[in-house]
Amino acid sequence: MRSLIPLFLLALPFLEIAGFIIVGNEIGVLATLGLIILAIFVGIFLLRLQGFGLIQKIREETAAGRSPKRELVHGVMLFFAALLLIIPGFITDIIGLLLFIPAVRDLGWRCISDRVVVVNSSGRRPAGPRQTRIKENVIDLDPEDYSSKPDPKSPWKPDQ
Q: In what helix (H) or strand (E) does residue 48 lie, and over which residues does it extend?
């Protein structure tokens, strides 16, 4: 699957051009340009409409003391969906419109939910199974262990 993504990204401009040609032949140039401009406005409108609701859900989850992981991931997907709608092209528009559907975002959430970690403003994560792995990499220093003065025994000399 991961090896197909770069190939898809390389082929995407050619597929979009082919889509423009096919749609332009069927409905005409002006109607094709109108659809592209309409998709841009729809992307901005949907992002604004669903974005405010998502911000409210994030606030509710945080106020309830729960981690807003799902809502944050949905927010990223909504931003990506709007970006895909703003980029001219019919294939990106279809993918962007699909990402605006909550069931599709939930499917994406299920695929990546175990890899998402939320850290609060104090730099701590909620207690969980991954908490112990971070503690192994933390080195706590006491105030007497740290000094901002240069160490005369250090082989690293400051620039003079």
A: helix 29-63
